[in-house]
Amino acid sequence: MKIEPSKLTIKWMNYHEYKEQIQSFRQSIYVEEQGVAEGFVNPEEDSEALHLGAFYDGELVSSISAFFLDKKSPIGQQYGSASEWGRAVRYGMRMEAPSIRGKNLNGLLCAYLGKTIYEIIRPDRTFVLLIPQHQHLAKFYMNYWGKQFYKSMSEGDLLVCDGGEALLNQYLICRRTLYTLTRRTYSDVELPSLLTFLRENHRHDLVAAKKLAEENLYVAGVDLESELPRLSQQAAALFSLQSPIYDSVQKLPNSGRLLDIGSGAGVYLNLLSTHDKFKSFSIEGLEGSTELYLQAQKSFPAIGWHNGSAYQTHLESNYYDVLHCGFLFIHLTSPELAIEEMARLLKKQGLLYVVDVNDATFKGPKALSNVIKAHCDLYQGDRQIMTLLPEMARQNGLKLEQDFSVRVGVQSGDGVRELDVALNKESFLSMFDFVGQREEVSKDYWLAKQDAMASSLSMSINIQTFVFANR
User: Fold this and answer.
1) Are the CB atoms for 416 and 428 separated by under 8 Å?
2) Which end of the chain, N or C, is surrounded by fewer C-beta atoms within 10 Å?
3) Diameter of the chain by CA atoms?
4) Handedness of CA 237, 238, 241, 247 (dihedral sign)
5) Cβ neighbours of 316 (radius 10 Å)
6) Coil, helix or strand for 322?
């Protein structure tokens, strides 16, 4: 059967929706855990589970579920060595109709479910139970998903991932990679927002906002003292690129309240406050790193500073006329949670201004391109988030009003279109030196950079700007 994207819908289902759908679907499905459902987890009795389903011509053809486990659950009782149980999730009940097997649709559901639950709910441990006919997959789970073999049970082999942040991050990276691969086949199909589903079903308490707020990928592993001069130079250079774009922003009020989220040391926001478009605004900045917040407060006391996370600002709802984010979203594990918080802060018709680099637009020597992609695959944030942001914003009530793109790079004589900003080769390549700080790709990066310095090829990357309005 050939799947027509226009007939395919993917949606989250609660207990009642899933139970209704599964009763008519059960006779023709392939159930990965047949025989386990009744004895170990019964999805029809678990009212707390989340279910992701694919519908073709209105009929359910594939689904997968996530079950939240406590210490009293069968797995909790078996897994008795953990001193702190935390939040535990078991993935299972993969089902698909015979007509769509081999189409990788269930693979997309599995990858998206795991990726999204990690980004929004952030479980402390995850489980998978392999029934005997699927035990050959154990090596795959353990090698690529950070799963560890725990014990054999009557129903099958129980694998668990609870080896701390390193293994959980490995799991996220694998899920994202699989999601990217399977998404290509279904690029025209809209994927539903888990955050919106939880909000509409009064289950927002599942969101790991506090845990996520404690993360700061921007400063993780960075020596801020040595980095501040470079970051300040980059802030000045970025402002010179963005200044003419601010002049082109439509529907910008003449005055009001502006909040910059992810302000760093405050250099950029201070420059922004001098721009003609914002001289009449009340300017505030929010930064998650206490060290950078104190630095900004000390350097620019005229600006109102807040120390907080993009996920939990603790600021007033419907308060700001303009929100500004410069090079923030690539450093977020859960960008949609930040979008939801920003929509809460904005007044109706208020504007959200986002500027960020998009690594998906990089053009250059193959070796350098490969190592930049490898870094993207390893990084907890998403350095290609600008590709996904318009749809993510739309699902949270924000409408894309304008978009701009600045192509920065090194020009060669090969006839490619002119750059918007031409840099010398050394300056351009230094933009990627942060990749060299990642141990897994450090050696490859410095070799690739050396080759790029000797290359005559053009190199470029796009810095994109989106202006959203709160509907």
Assistant:
1) no
2) C
3) 71
4) negative
5) 10
6) strand
Distance CA 262, CA 266 (A): 9
Q: Over the stretch 78-99, which tens digit does the pLDDT of each residue have?
A: 776 555 777 888 888 788 888 8
Q: Which helix (H) or strand (E) holds 320?
A: strand 320-326
Nearest to 268 by CA among 226, 228, 239, 308: 239
Write out the H or E segment, with its range, that includes residue 429.
helix 425-430
Task: Give 305-327 pLDDT, tens digit per residue.
Answer: 999 999 999 999 999 999 999 99
Amino acid identity at 225: E
Say if residue 144 is exposed, middle or buried (CB neighbours under 10 Å; 0-12, 13-18, 19+).
Answer: middle
Q: Are the C-beta atoms of 411 and 422 separated by less than 8 Å? A: yes
User: For residue range 32-65, what is the model confidence (pLDDT) as tens digits?
Assistant: 544 443 333 455 557 889 999 999 999 999 999 9
Please tell me the least confidently modeled range out of 63-72, 172-181, 239-248. Answer: 172-181
Count, residues in the chain: 471
Mean pLDDT, the chain, whole residue set: 86
pLDDT of amino acid 152:
77
Q: Report d(CA 219, CA 289) in Å as an integer.
A: 7
User: May I ask the CATH architecture of the domain 213-470?
Assistant: 3-Layer(aba) Sandwich (3.40)
What is the location of CATH 3.40.630.30 in the chain?
A: 5-207
Residue 463: its pLDDT value, please? 95
Closest C-alpha to 161, from 107, 48, 82: 82
CATH superfamily placement of domain 5-207: Gcn5-related N-acetyltransferase (GNAT) (3.40.630.30)
